[in-house]
Design goal:
three-stranded antiparallel beta sheet; about 35% helix; four-stranded antiparallel beta sheet; alpha+beta; single chain; about 140 residues; about 20% strand
């Protein structure tokens, strides 16, 4: 909105301090604060909250949440990398990229166990073949 007239603007052009009119059943483009209106907001995909949350003047809203039946005017407080959704994505990527010490230790132990098991099977097979008892190995025929 510019000077009380409603103008459609691409999300990429929104900046901090812009006032945005959020119509019913529409997503919030960025993080902000409600300056006018009252509505229930569905934040379940972002916060896990199972029920819509009531929002009114001075309440914070999260970019990506879905407005309910009311109309809200919000002022943009955060955009781009500063938004809640961007922070959640960044935290998830960091967690996936880093391995814990316990996970590294478990991977090494599993590799060691695999090689020990394979080597013992090969050793047993070779010792039975050299001792001439390989003719009675029915498990090899199955």
């Amino acid at each position: 909105m510019k000077k009380e007239e409603i103008v459609d603007v691409p999300v990429s052009e929104l900046g901090v301090g812009d006032v945005v009119l959020i119509r019913p059943e529409r997503k919030f483009p960025q993080n902000g604060k409600v300056v006018e209106g009252e509505s229930f907001v569905n934040e379940s995909l972002l916060t896990g909250e199972s029920k819509p949350v009531h929002k009114q003047t001075n309440d914070k809203v999260i970019g990506g949440a879905v407005n309910g039946d009311g109309v809200l005017r919000t002022i943009i407080e955060r955009t781009g990398e500063e938004t809640y959704l961007s922070q959640v994505i960044k935290t998830g990527q960091t967690a996936q990229e880093s391995k814990s010490r316990t996970q590294d230790l478990a991977n090494r132990a599993a590799a060691l166990l695999f090689y020990v098991a394979c080597n013992s099977r090969i050793d047993i097979f070779l010792s039975l073949v050299f001792l001439g008892k390989h003719r009675n190995l029915h498990s090899l025929e199955r």
